[in-house]
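Q: I have 173 residues here and want to know how they pack in 3D. Can you give me a structure?
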Amino acid sequence: MQLEILNPKNTTKLTFTAIDFETATAYHPCSVGIVTVENGIITDEFVTLIKPPNNEYNPYTIQVHGIYPHHTVNAKTFLQVYPEIEKRLKNKVVVAHNESFDRNVLIKSMAINGLHYEDLNIANRWECTVKIYKAKGIKPTKLSDCCREMKIQLNHHEALSDARACARLYLMK
C-alpha cells in the first residue's frame, strides 16, 4: 500500500479511522471497508466481504452494491472478521458518512455475536461527514453528492472506496 497525503494544507494533522459497511439485509453486513489515517496520511486500508447470517440478501441491497450471495458464500462471518475490525477501531476516533447507519450495523452485529460495543472504547456517536457537509450548505448530502462537490473520486457502494472518500471529506471539512 502506498502512503498518501490526503490534505497537505491541513495544519491540524488529524488521526482517525473511517469505516463503511455494505449490508445484505437490514443491519447484517456483507462488506466492510476501513481506512486508518494518522497525521493526515492513510497508513492502513482494509476491505473484506462478510458472509451474512444464512447468506441471505434483500434484492434491493443487491441492486445498491452489486454483492450477491455467490460472492459471500465462502466469506468469513462477522465474528471471524471482527478481530480485524477491532484492531482498527479500538480507542480511535471513528468517522463515517451517515454515521448512525454504520454505527448501528456495528453495534447490532457485535450484539448478535455476543460482543460488547463498549469494549472498543470509542464514542457512542461518531464523527459524521453528512452532518459536517450539511452544515456547510451542501445539498443533498449523499456521499456521491459530497464527493462530486469536493472533487473526490468515488466508486460508490464499494466499501473501501466509500471509506476512503469519507476520510478525504473529513480531512477537507
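Q: Anything worth noting?
A: The first helix runs from residue 59 to 65. The chain has a mean pLDDT of 93.
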